[in-house]
Each structure stands twice: as structure tokens, then as C-alpha cells.
Amino acid sequence: MKLKGKTAVVTGAAQGIGLAIATELATQGAAVTIADRSAEGAERAAAELTASGLTASAAVADITSADAADALVRVSEERHGPLDILVNNAGISINSGIRKLSDEDWNRTLAVNLTGVMNCSRAAARVMADRRSGRIVNITSRAWLGWFGQSAYSASKGGVVSLSRSLAIELARFGITVNAVAPGLIDTPLIRNETPEVLAKLLAAQPTGVIGRPEDVAWAVSYFAGPASGSTTGQVLYVCGGKSLYTRPA
Amino acid sequence: MPVVMIGSAPTNLTDTVLAQLRDAGWDVAPDESGPVDAVVVDAGLAEGTVNDTAVAELLAGARRWPFHSGDAGGGAIVVVGSRDQLGSGKRAEAAAVAGALASVVRSLALELAPAQVRVNLVAPFDPSVEDVRSLLPTPVAVEDVAATVAFLADPRSSYITGQILFCCGGASLLSSLSV
Description:
Chain B: One of its GO terms (molecular function) is oxidoreductase activity. Chain A has about 250 residues and is of the alpha/beta class. Chain A has helices spanning about 15-25, 40-50, 65-80, 105-130, 150-170, 190, 195-205, 215-225, and strands at about 5-10, 30-35, 55-60, 85-90, 135-140, 175-185, 235-240.
């Protein structure tokens, strides 16, 4: 129970990796606010956790709005007490070659994946700095290294990397650590919809021949959220089965 | 789960790593003769030692250590190197070893991936040795370095390999090689 007595906000936590993160933090003892744009999804996830005896509540938030991000932190503090941990997980992925990329897709990707992270981090930093402690963990992606058809997604996730490093430098003196987790191929509904051919190609590019699970990402997040990472800030940890070690363009 | 600790000499860091591994439920083996789930190697750099055989020892050991084989096989190697891998104006010799260790860790991670053996590195620094300082209000704690080793050794870190975690309170962030 390394996070006993701590409070956390996890964005995009109604399903997938976000839900796994919320579950892990709650299992380690934290009181978790499950934030999502879907009220129904957030409430279902929170109900699932509380039914297992964990402490969780749901909050609807469109993080592309600064006001919504401020309100999210406020609601979490009203319900669970001072905010200790923020996990910026919410994100979208729109693949498109640059020649066909629409302004709308570019703007939407940047708004959710980068501006959303800044909105929530700024809201959290304001309350954490006063208390001289806090943990911010941002979910980026190994795709920030670049990939075909992912100019918008990789640019947004690269933005998350440099945002994390700047926040780490700026907030260190307040005792706030800021780190990023960069998942590689993870078993989510997105992957399960791929054709067998595409799936085989993806697997062949995995050094360990294994596809990761949302729980693998959640475990790494819990390290950065907990006491073990007290001297670690500004880091990007790849949870990718070693795929980030080499590049083999398709 | 048996784990072996290999260090240049017993130090405050190796003692703390061992204590934390025991707390986490690891059974610390006296030597590397039996099957192991993890091997922790402290190259001694963070304590100010420059052991130029550390790289060769890691290369030879990684291919020899008796990890479990078969479907449920594999294991973890965690190396304690030094943030001096980024370059040092005062310790070029240590930086050379630290840099080589980082490169070897990434290579061994690829080489041993099919056998499900993971290889990762923790890069701390000792303020008494190196002229850098933590950006955080408190100095880098040996307990944090040990806890980071324990995190990477944990079977739940099974999807993490070839990675380098700087335990330096942000002191390495301005290096272009730190990302």
C-alpha cells in the first residue's frame, strides 16, 4: 500500500490504459478521481473500483478546456483532499499521411494530447506548489520518435516529452516531480481491430515477441507516482518491450 | 525468486539495494550458481570507483548467468551505472565506462530479448564525486536509487527493457543525450 493516504486524478480513465492506471493506483491505496469525457464511462469505471473495495469517484472533464481542467482539480480536492498525483493519460490517435492530413485532425490531436496535458498540469501545479510536493506523470508514446502517417500524433506526443522536461525543471524546487511514460505496442481494443497481417507485422517488430498489456503501463506509472521515484524527475520511460531500441521502417 | 547482487565492493548503495530487495520478497542468493530471476550489478561508478573491467564482466556475465529457460523463463538484469555517461569535465575515465555500460545494456537488451531476459540501467550520481546538483529540494537519496533498482528488477516490469533511468533529481536534463 505504497500510496495509502494519497489522492490521484487520472484523465481518460474510463477504459483501456487509463482504467488500468486508475486501478493500480487505487489498489496501492490512493483515492482516485476517474476523469473522462464520457460521464457514463467514468461512472462505470468508478463503480467497478468501489465495488472491489477501492476508493474512486467519477468526474466528467473535457481537458481541452482550461476551465474544465481547473474544475477537475477542484472537484478532486473537494472529494478526496489535497491532490498528490496527476496522471495525464487522456489522448487520441488519428493516423493520416501528411498530404491528406486535415486541419481539423491536426488541431484536435494537438488540443487533446498536448493542450489538455498542459491545462491539467497547470491546474495541478498551482495547488501542488503551495504544498511543496506532488507527482505529475504524463503518458506520451514511443511514437514521438516518429512514424509513418503519425505526424500529428507523434508531434503531439513529442510535445508532451518536452513539456514534461520543462515542467520537471521548473517545478523541481517545489518538490514536484514530472515524468513521462512512453508505451509501445499495447493490447487495447485499437490493436484487436487490426487485420491478422498487420498484427503479424507489428509482432515481428517486437524484440521480445510479446505485446504489452495496459497493466504494464500502469505499473510504470505507479513507480513515478510513488515514493520510489523521489530522486527521479524529467525522465521518459519506454514501456515497449525494447522496440524503442532500434528502428526498422516497414 | 532468487536474485544475485554483484558489486565491486560492499557499499552503502549495495547494502541498501539488498535490504530493499529482501523487503520486496526477493531471496538473495549467495552466488550465481543456481537458477536466478534477477541479477543486479553495481559497477561502482556512482561511489567514485572506476572499474574498467566492468563492461567486459557485464558482457560475459549476461551470457552466463543461469536464468530460467523455457516458456516461463527469462529474468532481469539491472545495472547501476552513472549519469557521467552524458560526459563529465572531471571524470572522463568514469564517463567512458558509464557510456560503454549504457551502450552494452541497450545491446544486451536486444540480444537477450528472445530469451525474455530484460536488461536495464539506473544512472545515479554522487554529489561528493561529481560537480552537479539535484534540482529537487533534497539531494539524491541512496534509498531512491535502490528503490528504482527494485522497480526494474520486479517481474511486473516485464515489458521494460533496454531503458536508462536517471536518478539524479533532474540534474541531467539539460544534456541533449538525456532524452
